[in-house]
Fold:
Amino acid sequence: MASELRVTTIANNAGTESVDTTYVINGSAKAWINFTMTTATNNDSLNVGSLTDNSAGNFSINTSTAFANNSYALMSGAAHNQANNTNFGDIVVVDSASSYTHIHRENSVATDTQYGSFSSAFGDLA
Structure:
């Protein structure tokens, strides 16, 4: 049997720190993934249905549950070996309410990094 807990504030045991539940609900990632680009392996994730390797450094992440609209916020990154003095960056682009693209570039060229990559999405689910 399903149940529902309704509270307005969450506090620690001592009652010295608390937060309104709105911050917890609205400020939590609704989808995230940690993946390896070189093998297109989903290492761990939340609300991710599939990971598609489109080309070098270019991946589509499809969520299991769609967002309410295309205005959700994204962030991404990748671990990188700075010893090779490469300029690198990660870009995430909303494709639809249930899909976004993660692109990793080194010296302005899309490429797979041998280190871990991540992205996360924040917003209201449908």
Notes: The first strand starts at residue 9 and ends at 11. DSSP finds one helix and eleven strands in the chain.
